[in-house]
């Protein structure tokens, strides 16, 4: 009975220590973007910082962050520098202002996992408060403007047993290799979340950034195009993974394959005649509406042009009447001059 209780408690502790999801708040994204533009913009460097927040039952909530001085050698991946004293001083000051926020992990602008990330994880783990069950997480924040999907990718550290390590056995021993435990990163679902005050601030920020010259239709079309490009990127990523698994260059993961199968099962069956006909009818109706809208807009534009021309002619005129009047006026002045001259000559003779 005691053994069963101990086993259940160990399983419960293991389930609580597993990271199930990571929520990134807008303040973290803004801070990481500002850090990158101040330190590594226009270079091949990356920015590294510490994530602050809270965790509960495997759900990590990153509400704040701060930058950390970091340098690494581009030629030798084993050489890097992280300022421990700066990190300790910043944590001490943050505890005075935000006592509830603690270290929940670290971020990097990546955009991919580097060889030094596991060593940085070991360093950041030292600053996690004692008694914390949930381990720190690693979040890659992609600050590139061309990215269409969510700019965050979260990972947790797991231990894997690699049995392909050759063992130094005796001569003639074909027993294979010895098992080796190594650490690696495993993907964790991440999402962007915000509190009510943060949502208000983000709305005001987006209102200032919004371009009034761009119409709503253009924004909708741009959103559709970005969604389709992201879908294409994900499908290509799935294809590359399946190709690598079939070639034997990557180990198969049952969870990933099960998710792919579920996605494929949710796709509609396009071989049904009724579905194909309904899609064609819907497509034709939408194209007809677009054609009629363009035709009506063209007719209205021509009508406005005709009205504008009529109004212009009424105000200014075509110019012919003024020329005729001018000539008449000139002739009248000449005749008046000749008559005046004749009168003067007649008076002089008298």
State the main characteristics.
350 residues; alpha/beta; Cytidine Deaminase, domain 2; two-stranded antiparallel sheet; 20% strand; disordered N terminus
Are there runs of 5+ residues with pLDDT below 50, and where?
Answer: 1-14, 168-172, 320-331
Rg (C-alpha, Å): 38 Å
* CATH class type of the largest domain: Alpha Beta
Order of helices and strands: HEHEEEEHEHEEEEHHHHH
- Total number of strands: 10
- How far do the termini sit from each other? 156 Å
Task: Give your account of this protein's structure.
It is a single chain. The chain has 3 domains: about 200 residues, Cytidine Deaminase, domain 2 (3-Layer(aba) Sandwich); about 55 residues; about 70 residues. The chain is about 55% helix and about 20% strand. Strands 9-8-7-6-2-3-1-10 form an 8-stranded mixed β-sheet.
In short:
This is 26S proteasome regulatory subunit RPN8. Helix content is 53%, strand content 20%.
Write the layout of secondary structure elements.
Layout: H1 2-17, E1 21-24, H2 26-39, E2 48-56, E3 59-67, E4 70-72, E5 80-82, H3 84-97, E6 102-108, H4 117-125, E7 137-141, E8 152-166, E9 177-188, E10 190-192, H5 196-209, H6 216-247, H7 254-266, H8 273-316, H9 320-349
Parallel strand pairs: 1-3, 1-10, 6-7
Antiparallel strand pairs: 2-3, 2-6, 4-5, 7-8, 8-9
């Amino acid at each position: 009975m005691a053994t069963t209780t101990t086993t259940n408690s160990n399983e419960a502790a293991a389930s609580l220590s597993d990271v199930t999801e990571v929520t990134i708040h807008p303040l973290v994204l803004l801070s990481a973007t500002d850090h990158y533009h101040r330190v590594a913009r226009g270079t091949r460097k990356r920015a590294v910082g510490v994530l602050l927040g809270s965790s509960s039952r495997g759900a990590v909530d990153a509400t704040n962050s701060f930058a950390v001085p970091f340098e690494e050698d581009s030629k030798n991946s084993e050489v890097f520098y992280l300022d421990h004293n700066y990190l300790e001083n910043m944590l001490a000051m943050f505890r005075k202002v935000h006592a509830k926020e603690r270290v929940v992990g670290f971020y990097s602008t990546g955009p991919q996992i580097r060889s030094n990330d596991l060593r940085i994880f070991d360093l950041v783990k030292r600053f996690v408060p004692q008694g914390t069950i949930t381990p720190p997480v690693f979040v890659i924040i992609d600050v590139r403007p061309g990215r269409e999907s969510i700019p965050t990718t979260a990972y947790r550290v797991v231990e894997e047993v690699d049995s392909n390590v050759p063992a130094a056995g005796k001569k003639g021993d074909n027993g294979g290799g010895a098992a080796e435990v190594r650490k690696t990163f495993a993907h964790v679902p991440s999402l962007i979340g915000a509190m009510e005050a943060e949502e208000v601030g983000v709305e005001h920020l987006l209102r200032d950034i919004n371009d009034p010259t761009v119409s709503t239709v253009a924004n909708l079309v741009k959103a559709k195009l970005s969604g389709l490009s992201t879908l294409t990127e994900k499908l290509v990523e799935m294809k590359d993974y399946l190709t690598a698994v079939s070639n034997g260059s990557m180990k198969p993961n049952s969870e990933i394959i099960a998710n792919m199968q579920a996605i494929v099962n949710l796709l509609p069956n396009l071989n049904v005649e009724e579905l194909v006909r309904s899609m064609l009818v819907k497509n034709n109706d939408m194209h007809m509406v677009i054609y009629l809208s363009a035709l009506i807009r063209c007719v209205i534009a021509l009508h406005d042009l005709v009205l504008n021309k009529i109004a212009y002619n009424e105000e200014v005129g075509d110019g012919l009447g003024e020329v005729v009047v001018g000539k008449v006026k000139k002739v009248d002045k000449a005749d008046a001059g000749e008559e005046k001259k004749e009168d003067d000559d007649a008076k002089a003779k008298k």
